[in-house]
Amino acid sequence: MTKRARIVAGNWKMNMTYPQGRDLTLQIVNSLQPSETVVVLCPPFIHLQNTYTAITGISNLHLGGQNCHEAEKGAFTGEVSVDMLASCGCKFVILGHSERREYFGESDTLLAQKIDRVLEANLTPIFCCGEPLAIREENTQDAYVAEQIKNSLFHLSADQLKKIVIAYEPIWAIGTGKTASPEQAQEMHHYLRSLIAKQYSDELAQSIPILYGGSVKPANALELFSQPDVDGGLVGGASLKAEDFMSIINSSNKALDA
Ligand code: 13P
């Protein structure tokens, strides 16, 4: 069976002033040990340059953007292009986060364009999907998430799709302290893999890292990451405290060793 990458990514969202971000990065750099877990820091854009300088030379620590525009460049005031991210050392870009979908009106179609742009620039999209609470309560989450995946990813060739990381983030679990149970996460991750297997191949489905996001914290990370189809986490609030984030990375390493 293909060995999938293990990834723990910290999505700082719109948090951390410049000095706070610099301190957090230094704390992580100073405590991170070499391991097979790929760690990705996704700070706000103003931190990219400094964070990149701080993490350069650490082989398992990478930088990611939280979003980018779908155009190559141009008159789009306030936006950031993927080439700009790449030039600051980013290897990853989060796309389709539920906060971007909800507060900035990002549609599946727009996200398909962003995915294309990011792949063209040879960066790795971390594509987020996940259902709101009402959908979970009526137990139609599989169909809901399948639409997001089909509409934004299934135009890709197999060679393109294999460069993607997926993050399943149920909206009802984001920032609420309410985590999906390990069983719920595993069930959805397994379902996502089965969709990819049906459309492409089982080999491809088995090779794509699928991260879980939504109130991942030191107390629940190991159990979540120990599920067979959960390949790590996309962490919000707990990535803002070096101690918590390091503990989550250690849980990923433990799940790998198990
Ligand atoms: P929390 O970990 O704060 O719930 O956020 C999850 C998330 O949205 C990561 O992208």
Gist?
With 258 residues, the protein is α/β, with parallel strands linked by helices. The chain is 46% helix and 15% strand. Strands 1-2-3-4-5-6-7-8 form an eight-stranded parallel barrel, surrounded by six helices.
Can you describe this structure?
The protein has helices spanning 18-31, 48-55, 82-87, 98-104, 108-120, 133-137, 141-153, 158-161, 182-199, 202-207, 218-225, 242-257; strands spanning 6-11, 37-42, 61-65, 92-95, 124-129, 165-168, 210-213, 232-235. The chain has 258 residues and is of the alpha/beta class. It has one domain (6-257): TIM Barrel. Strands 1-2-3-4-5-6-7-8 form an eight-stranded parallel barrel, surrounded by six helices. α11 (218-225) links the parallel β7 and β8 (232-235). The model has no long low-confidence stretch (mean pLDDT 96). Bound molecules: 1,3-dihydroxyacetonephosphate (13P). The site of 1,3-dihydroxyacetonephosphate has 14 residues, from β8.
Features:
258 residues; alpha/beta; TIM Barrel; eight-stranded parallel barrel; 12 helices; 8 strands; 46% helix; binds 1,3-dihydroxyacetonephosphate
Give the number of domains: 1
CATH class group: Alpha Beta
CATH architecture: Alpha-Beta Barrel
Work out the helicity level.
40-55%
Ordered list of secondary-structure elements with their pairings:
Layout: E1 6-11, H1 18-31, E2 37-42, H2 48-55, E3 61-65, H3 82-87, E4 92-95, H4 98-104, H5 108-120, E5 124-129, H6 133-137, H7 141-153, H8 158-161, E6 165-168, H9 182-199, H10 202-207, E7 210-213, H11 218-225, E8 232-235, H12 242-257
Parallel strand pairs: 1-2, 1-8, 2-3, 3-4, 4-5, 5-6, 6-7, 7-8
Helix pairs in contact: 1-2, 1-12, 5-7, 7-9, 11-12
